[in-house]
Design brief:
Number of domains: 3
Number of helices: 10
Strand content: 15-25%
CATH architecture of the largest domain: 3-Layer(aba) Sandwich
CATH topology of the largest domain: D-Maltodextrin-Binding Protein, domain 2
Order of helices and strands: HHHEEHEHEHEEEHEHEHEEEH
Radius of gyration: 23 Å
Structural class: alpha/beta
Shape: elongated
Largest sheet: 5 strands, mixed
Number of strands: 12
């Protein structure tokens, strides 16, 4: 027996809430109807989609996690078809879930979302900020359709659409002895302590750059907070290296910073849109991707 979109909606609601009771409330249907839909899907695919925990709800099996990603994509496309059938001349509508690397999100997305909201007022954008690994995990779990991130940690299942190359730069206090230079080498910076952005992938990536030059850093502080990195640098003779660069040259507590290009020739890092290769993009995501390309073409 073929499965139905309704069964998939009930399955997604159960997966996201971890409870048949909460899923039934979300989709406004009886609990037995939700349980029956899940049982029919499990019979149809010949696998268990959930692990049942006595008095503690449900959790997805590996097969359930894989189906969740595909089910969300299929339901998104079903919404596209429904909206298209209502009139090709009408605006796009619905929810668009976007993932974003957390240090990039506040520098780029507010401007883009503002423009997108004026162009497509019927689309509600939902943001999911995370570190690089969290963004990739979210894509694979179907939490969002695509993500704005760097080309770090990508496997073959991820398709990456480059928007721009982002050079590496160092951050120093404005009165740092090296801040008067036009550019600085990591070999020059290494005599000073390092403040390290300690996010998954990012931490190892920045350290690999330094180790790859045959240098040994002296790490003074590690923090997952981008603004804490800037603040710690601003109040010391330490340095940090980063790709994300705000327009403001001031730390949050009012200390001035200097941003200098790195002299060493390093592999260029790219900022772009990542998505699961096996999933077809919806019209909503294609509209936002087109806006992203237009934005960076003007840079």
């Amino acid at each position: 027996m073929p499965f139905t979109l309704k069964q998939l909606r009930y399955f997604v609601a159960t997966a996201e809430t971890g409870s048949v009771t909460l899923a039934a409330q979300r989709v406004n249907i009886s609990q037995p109807s939700v349980s029956a839909a899940i049982a029919e899907l499990e019979a149809r695919f010949g696998v268990d989609l959930f692990v049942r925990h006595h008095a503690q709800g449900l959790s997805l099996t590996p097969a359930g996690r894989e189906l969740l990603t595909d089910a969300k994509s299929l339901l998104d496309h079903a919404d596209d078809v429904r909206l298209g059938a209502m009139g090709l001349g009408q605006d796009l509508a619905g929810e668009l879930h976007i993932g974003c690397f957390q240090t990039v999100a506040p520098l780029i997305l507010p401007h883009l979302i503002g423009i997108f909201a004026r162009q497509h007022s019927e689309i509600s954008v939902k943001l999911h900020e995370n570190h690089v690994q969290g963004v990739l995990d979210g894509l694979r779990a179907g939490e969002f359709e695509f993500a704005l991130t760097y080309d770090l940690g990508l496997d073959d299942d991820i398709e990456f659409d480059t928007l721009t190359e982002v050079p590496l730069h160092c951050i120093l206090a404005k009165d740092h002895p090296l801040a008067r230079h036009k550019a600085v080498a990591i070999a020059e910076l290494i005599q000073y302590p390092l403040v390290l952005l300690a996010l998954p992938h990012s931490r190892d990536y920045f350290l690999s750059i330094i180790y790859g030059l045959g240098l040994q850093p002296r790490v003074a502080h590690e923090t997952p907070n981008f603004e804490m990195v800037r603040g710690l640098v601003a109040h010391s003779d330490a340095f940090s290296i980063m790709h994300s660069r705000p327009l403001s040259e001031w730390s949050l507590d009012g200390k001035r910073l200097a941003f200098l290009p790195i002299k060493e020739k390093l592999r260029p890092t790219r900022l772009g849109l990542a998505r699961l290769r096996k999933l077809r993009p919806t019209r909503r995501s294609l509209a936002f991707a087109a806006l992203c390309h237009l934005h960076f073409q003007g840079k």
